[in-house]
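Quick one: C-alpha cells for this chain, please?
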Amino acid sequence: MKVEEVKSIVKTQRISAHSHIKGLGLDENGFAIQAAAGLVGQEQAREAAGVVVDMIRSKKMAGRAILLAGPPGTGKTAIALATAQELGNKVPFCPMVGSEVYSSEIKKTEVLMENFRRAIGLRIRETKEVYEGEVSELTPVETESPAGGYGKTVSHVIITLRTAKGSKQLKLDPSIYEALQKEKVEVGDVIYIEATSGAVKRQGRSDAYATEFDLEAEEYVPLPKGEVHKKKEVVQDVTLHDLDAANAKPQGGQDVLSMMGQLLKPKKTEITDKLRQEINKIVDKYIDQGVAELVPGVLFIDEVHMLDIETFTYLHRALESALAPIVIFATNRGRCLIRGTDDVYSPHGIPLDLLDRLLIIRTMPYNRSDMEQILKLRANTEGLEIDPDAISALGGIGTKATLRYAVQLLTPAHLTAKINGRNHIALEDIEETGSLFLDAKSSAKILQENKDKYMS
C-alpha cells in the first residue's frame, strides 16, 4: 500500500525586504525602543517620525512634507513604511521612485498626480436597507424567449436567505441573477442584497461548511444574526484614484466588438483635470453630508533626486492642494545637480524653495551590533535557523561591505547548509558563500587593480 502526504494548499506569501516592519517601535512617551516593531537602532530618526505622526493626527501637516536623508541602507524606506503603519492599517501607503515619472505613454505630472490620488483614501459609511443571510435555496425560473425560437430566458430567481433568527424567500429580477453569477454565489454562501439598488455582495462561505475540504482555502464567516431584512451600515474604503479610474472607463456594451475595443485601448490613459474636479465636488458633498470621511495616506517618493525641475515645480502646487496626502521623500545624495538644469547645484538635488517646505530627518549608518540584530530579525522573518557565530561573521561582512549585501547572503548560505546536510546556517556556510560572491567594494577594488585588463 502506497501512502502519500498531502501537501498544504495554502499559498506561500513572498517575503519582501520590509515584511517585518510593524510600526515605529516607540514607547508611550514617544521615545524609541532600541529594537521594537521590526526596527533596530535609528532612535533619533524614529522619534522624529513619531513627532510627525502626532502632527498628522492633529491635522497640522498641511502644505509640508518630510525628507529622509542618509547613506544607502540606513532604513529610510523602513521608517517611511513604519510611519504609515503607525497611522493605521487602513491608511493608504503608495510607494514610488523618482524615475517612474519618465514614461513614454503618460506625462510626468500625470504620473505624480495619479500617485497623489492613490495615496488619498475615502471611507464611505452608508446605512442601507439590505437582505442579509446564508443562501439556502437559489433557483432560476426560466420562461420561453420573447424573441421566439427554441431558447429560454430567466424570468426571475427564487432565493431563500437564512439567519439565526429565521429565513425569508425572495423573488428577484434577472438583472440581480446576473449580479449573483458575477459574484459566484452558491448555496451556503453568506451574502447581502441592497434593497434599493439590487447590488449583491458576497461576504464569504458560511462557517457551517468549514469542515469541508476546500481547494481554494475559502474565507468562512458566521451565520448573520437578527432578521433577514434589516438596516446595515456598509463601510467601503476606496482611494481617489479608484474613483477616477472607475469614472474614466467608458461603459461599453457586453457584445464582442465592445469588449475587443476595450482590450485594444492603451493600458495607461490620462484622466482629465475636469473629471478629477467633478469627482472632488462629489467627494466634498459626501464629506459635508457626513456620509464619507477623507483618509490622507502616505505617498513615499524614493530617490527624489531623480525628479527634474518641472516636476519639483508641480510638487509645490500639489502640496498646497486641499486634497493632499502626507508626502515623504527619501534620498541618499549629497550636493548634486538638479536634474533638468545645466548648472544649478543644490543639497540632495532638490531646489532650495522646496527644501524650505521640508522637515528633514537624518538617518545614520548602523553599527555592528545593530547589524547583527537586523540579520537575526531577517533570518527569523525568512524562517532560517542560524548559529550565533554565523551571525557574528555576517555582521563583520556588513561592516566591511554593506548591510544589504550581508542580508543578501542569508538565502545562499541557507542553500549551502542544505547541500552540506544541515538545517541551520553555520560559520562555514557563511565563509563558503562569501568566497563565491563579491560585494560592490571588493569588485571595485579588483577593477582598479586590473584596470588594464578591462575595456574602458
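The CA atoms of residues 390 and 426 lie 5 Å apart.
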